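fyi for ur records
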Amino acid sequence: MSIYLIRHGQSEFNAAHGPGKPDSMIFDAPLTEKGRQQAQQARAGVADLGILRVVASPLTRAIQTAQIIFGNTVPIQVASGHHEQLIHSCDVGRTPDELQQDFPDLAFDHLQELWWHQGPLNENGIPVEPVSVFQQRAKDFIKHLSQLSDEPVAFVGHGNMFRELIGYGMENCQIHHYSR
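which gave:
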């Protein structure tokens, strides 16, 4: 079985945020033009991988990346297990109804209304996901990966989640062949 991890393209938050800078308060950040170009360039990297199914995180930047890379060539599903650790405003999700408005060709009715982490708010009003909660979610996701069928699948997701799975940070739109 082939499992591919693909980090989303550059988001508006990625472009605005940096070391020592405060949270730019860009909620569920979409891709920048550079991020769209990165995703278009990644098309060539997946062309010969035989991917039959794509699972995108419900965060806008991951969905946009999946749609640009794969277009209508393979089915795209949305699932919440491999979404980003909620640390910044960009990691706060949107409800299934809100997502459905922007992505009418995808299904969101299986998602919980508030599928992202809920908890105490930080000084910016963000419910930061504790590391222990995030690490347990990553373990649950690894267990999910071990139960997949043999069809080649790509998961379009996020830096912190994929770092937790593979031990290093991926670049925007980098493709990693995951070994169970």
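DSSP finds six helices and five strands in the chain. thats all i got for now
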